[in-house]
Structures are given as structure tokens and as C-alpha cells.
Amino acid sequence: MSLATRYRPQNFEDLVGQLSAAQSLKNALDYRKIGHAYLFHGARGVGKTTMARILAKALNCVNGPTSQICNSCEHCVEISEGRSTDVIEIDAASNRGIDNIRELRAQAVFAPMKSRYKVYIIDEVHMLTTESFNALLKTLEEPPHHVVFILATTELHKIPETITSRCQVFTFKKFNAREIADRLAHILDLEKIAFEREALLPIAERGEGSLRDAISLLDQTLAFSGQNTLTLAAVRESLDILPVETYNNFVQGLRTGDLHAILNAIHELAQGGANLRVFLKDLLAYLRVMVLVSEKVEVHSLSKEDLEKIIRAAQAWDRNALIRVFQQLFRLNQEFGQMLSAKSSELRMALEISLVDLVHKLREPSVSALVQKIERLKTAIETGKPFEDTIASAPVQPEKRDTPAPQPQAATGDHQADTAAMLQKAFLAEEVPVNPETQKLFGG
């Protein structure tokens, strides 16, 4: 039995997170304010189906309806083992037709065989057809008193408003990395498996807010290590997680414009069988942390050692340039998401060309630098002071050139004309198009 199945919560007290939904349902049970239809929505692996089964047990427990489930009576045991005749779980992805819903309606009118309530749990309910929703609508509006519907979905926007308006809607939030890591630590303690605390954070991050996915990854890692201990090295090797130094060196190559080092790194990753989709996704996560730490935002999802390395790397970057890098790679990641059937070689080509383009863009002056330059040139024209270009146009340091220092001149009309000519020359040298707003600075 997998860890995810073995340690699935069996009562409200075992639930991790979703405290708002759990408390509302417990109060409804204790005060006999039981609804006839519930709609649980949220990302995958956050506990929607688990909560539905717990609610079914709470409704049918021999002591119920109650929020204190015994988990030992016949009803609780049968529901936990998935063999209760009065708790019917339906996968709407494979039973989405109108005939399936008509059959459900025909069966719902009959009283439960052994339990207090007949509970229908319809998973991925958004997969139902429009005709099926319409057929279900009447039953949701006037259900038999002994029937409770629990609908679960990952895509609430696909549910017709006529359906949601007849349900009590509960939102299931994603888990944060710390909550997932704490749950993994609890499971490992129960399994009597020694572990390094730092080894849990990468698993929690890779779970992307899904506790079920994170527990499955933990199961995979333990199977890979083949021993009763969990180390950070084993997690990285099992989940193909590259060390922080790899991303540090890669981003350093972007900052210095070292295309040879960047493309060679991609070559080595491809030759080593790395998944470039995963690499790009992890690179974006690394850049996100760099931006956050540059803004003095606390980050709790990394070990102290790795965080210090990222802080040192971020200090060498201009913030605006760092954001430009993130934005371009984020767009590429979105394109990768649409290239589901693309070969690894095609993904590699797309990544390499995008990185070449990115390096060249970083060598160009940023918008903020150009705006500052315009303001300084405007000030020089108005005050008659000599213009000095002191802002680098990119994070890569430009070559130094031996040019004579400008001589101070009086604030005369000739000098203003000379400065305006210098402004035009500067923009032509930068190959920046002069728009109408910029022409105003020349008096045009």
C-alpha cells in the first residue's frame, strides 16, 4: 500500500490544512444544519475527495450525524474501505453522459439500504455535459430527504451557475511548502525512517501545493534510496533536482553575456538526459527567489545554505535586468506548455535560441536607463551644464573608451544647440528610434 493511501486522513482531526472548510462542516453536523448538496473545489491533491469521504462517515456513523467519527462501527469501516452500498462514488470524467445522470436520478429516490443517508460523491463534476447538468439540476433543487450530494472539481469556472447556486461551495486551498514538509516529517516519524530535514523541502516544492503528489514523490524517493533513511542527496538524484550551484553558474553566464558557457551547460544537461521542461521550470523558481531576496522578502522554502548562495548571486544583478530575464523565460515556459508533443531536440533548440536572444537583449539599454538618460540630457539643455553619460546600458559592463572630457561652456544659445546635437548623436549611436515625445526635448 502506498504512503498516500496508508496515511489518508480518516477524520476531521487528521486533516492537514483546509481548516475553514473542516470547521464549517463540523459545526453543520453538530448543530444539525446539514445541507443537501456541497461543492468542493480546488487544485488536485488538496483533500477534496478525502473530505467528502469523511463527511459521508460523519453523516452515517452510528453515533451521528456527528463531527466525532468513531471509525469503528460498520458504516465507518465500510465507507473507509470503499464498499458501502449507500456511498456511491462516481467519476464524471468517464460517466458524463445524460444516461448516467438519469440512472443516478432513478436510484436516488430509493431509501438507503443500511445507512442514514445515501451519499453521492461526484468527482471531476465539471466533465459532465450540458445535458447532464440540466438533468442533475432538478434533483439538486428538490432532492429526497435521505440524499446528500458532494460534488468535487478542479475547475469551478466550468460549473454552471444554476448548479453552484444550489450547493454550499467550499474552497480548498493549496498547501504551502512548510505544511507539506511537516506532514512528510510526521509520516516518516510514524514509519520510523530517519531523515534530513533539508531533504523534505525539495519534495514539498516539487509537489506544487498538492499534498498527495508530495507524498507520492516521497514514496518514490524512498524506493530509490532503498534504505531506512532519507538524505538530501538521494532526493536530488531521485527527482532529478540540480544543486543551487548549477543555477548560480547559469545565471552568472547570463549576467556576463558568456554564451559559450550557457550553451555548453544546456548541451551537458541534454546529454545527461535532463528534462529541459523541468530545468526551465526550476530555473524560473530560482530567478523568482533572486527577485524576492533582492527586495528583502523572506523566503522559507529553501535551506539556509542555499538561500545565502542565492542572496550573494542576486547582489551582482540589476533588479530591472533580472526581471527582464524572468519575464522572457516565463514566456518561453508558457510556450513549452503548448508544445506537448514536441521532441526533446525541439525543446532544446527553442531554449538555446531564446537564451541567445536574451543575452543580446541584456546588452541593450533598458527602458529605465534610457528614461534617466533623457532626463539628464534635458537637464543639461536647460541648465547649460555639460552632459555626462554615466549609466551603463546593460548589466554587462561596456568597454571603456578613451574620449576627451567635455569642456565646461557658458549657458548660451550656441551651447544649447550643441547639446541638442549631442542628444541626437547619442540616440543615433544607440540606434534608438526617436518618438514624438522625445522630439519635444529637441524643441521640435
General description of the model:
The chain has helices spanning 3-6, 19-30, 48-60, 74-80, 98-108, 130-141, 161-164, 177-190, 200-206, 211-225, 232-238, 244-256, 259-271, 276-294, 304-314, 319-338, 344-363, 367-383, 413-430, 436-439; strands at residues 37-42, 87-91, 118-123, 147-153, 168-172, 194-195, 229-230. It is 54% helix and 7% strand. With 444 residues, it is of the alpha/beta class. It has 20 helices and seven strands. The radius of gyration is 31 Å and the shape is elongated. It has four domains: 3-172, Rossmann fold, CATH 3.40.50; 177-238, Helicase, Ruva Protein, domain 3 (Orthogonal Bundle); 244-363, Zinc Finger, Delta Prime, domain 3, CATH 1.20.272.10; 367-394 and 406-442, no CATH class. The relative contact order is 0.07. A five-stranded parallel beta sheet has the order 2-3-4-1-5, with helices on one face. It has a two-stranded parallel ribbon with strand order 6-7. Helix 12 (244-256) runs parallel beside helix 15 (304-314) and helix 18 packs antiparallel against helix 19.
